[in-house]
Amino acid sequence: MNTIYILWLRQLKKYFRSRSRIIGSLGQPILFLVAFGFGFGSIYQKANGGNYIQFLAPGIILMGVLFTAVFSGIELIWDRQFGFLKETMVAPVSRFNIMLGRTLGGATVASIQGLIVFLLTLIIGFRPQNFLMVPIAFIFIFLTALLFTSLGTAIASLLEDMQGFQLIMNFLVMPIFFLSGALFPLKGVPKIMEIIAKADPLTYGIDGVRGSLISNSTYGIVNDFLILSVVTICILGIGSYLFEKIQI
Amino acid sequence: MTSMITVSGLSKKFKDFTAVDNISFDVKKGEIFAFLGPNGAGKSTTIKMLTTLLHPTTGEITLNGHNPSKDKDAVRKAFGIVFQDPSLDDDLTAWENMYFHAVLYSIPASHRDSRIKELLEFVELFDRKNDLVKTFSGGMKRRLEIARGLLHHPSILFLDEPTIGLDPQTRNHMWSYLQNVNKKEDMTIFFSTHYMEEAEKIAQKIAIIDHGKIIAIGTNEELKKETKTKSLEEAFLKLTGKMIRSEEASGIDHLRMTRKMFRR
What we know:
The complex is a heterodimer of chains A (about 250) and B (about 260). Chain A is mainly α and about 250 residues long. Chain A has helices at about 1-15, 20-40, 40-45, 50-75, 75-80, 85-90, 95-125, 135-160, 165-180, 190-200, 200-215, 220-245. Chain A contains 12 helices and no strands. A 6-stranded mixed beta sheet of chain B has the order 5-6-7-3-8-9, sandwiched between helices. A 3-stranded antiparallel beta sheet of chain B has the order 2-1-4, with helices on one face. Chain B is globular and about 50 Å long. Chain B starts with a strand and ends with a helix. The model of chain B is unreliable at about 250-264 (pLDDT under 50). Classes of the chains: A mainly alpha (about 250), B alpha/beta (about 260).
């Protein structure tokens, strides 16, 4: 228990100490929200979609969560060779607890990042229908954060250095984001895209947040919750298995 | 004297490469033991097997009465280690680095603060306790790592090339600390180094490893006598030859560069 706590705490301390990282990682979501939100807003309205900012904001919140989460998982590569990880690997504690503490810390950090983006979307014009549902939205945000931190950790456990980082960003993280329905409704897209979106766990995170904040859910928030939970547990399992196998 | 480490018939193979080839040795309790060898000879691999980070392919290890492959936690509690590469968290303060270690090694909360203070004072870093480690010089980081390695009262301390890149003042200082703890607490020290004078001066027993095999073991005097040389350096060169060894660049060398670029 202490192990999990101290590793969690460490992720938070590191996050709050790197202000440039916090601010830097906010740039992208804001740019997307402003460029797409105002750029496509009128077309979306003409096509009877309603207010595009309302639709887009949950997708952008989870974009911030996705990137921060994958990145805190991947950071394990640095830790593994230089930082604390070598220290923790020879400590008399179980590796599962190390992985869990680290991943929960990363997920908390990504959720905080989601909260900051959420507050920014409010400034730009996003209005949740019911503020009482905000805590429900944050359950989805935290689950998504946990899922993708575990995914980042799993990948980092397999990589020796940061050279594969670009590959992961371009062939995994970007597709996860762009094919998830973060930017457009999944109704009426070609069949193949619908199938891909259904296989993309981020879709359910976004759908859950949309369901709770603007009552606009495709799959229903209970389904979203169940699917997201099962996938998160599986990836957490794979992540901890691969983490156990790390040799320094 | 009882044994702290007993190694017999230890080998480690990576695919078709034998990094450690059937080595056996014994380290007594309270002894200062130096482990020497050219680059790529198998020093680090051996240390990794002793410290539970790698499983031996064949052979037996007993450390403080326990087997590192089977009884990991008992072995882990028994040793402290200072790695070849820094393993501190640069974004945390000196105190936080120590505190983290204290929690991982289940040092009771009531003792934590006093023990950390004691050791930070011991390595003369107490007045810098709230500074981030990234503001520390190489020598200060090393001292902090040593303090951390000693925090949980280990019976044995491993040091993998601990004095690399340190100036003679810091090196001297560091060894006088360690010899002091060695005497006071009867703590065994196992270290690897490329500095022959260091091994000559500090170590009570020296093993020389090359191509994965231990080619000589004994006291400084015994090794010199055996090779009919005047210094350990000459003995070392006579035993291992004058050829320069090349080690393949590993992932970590690339990382060292990329990390510098990524750090803000």
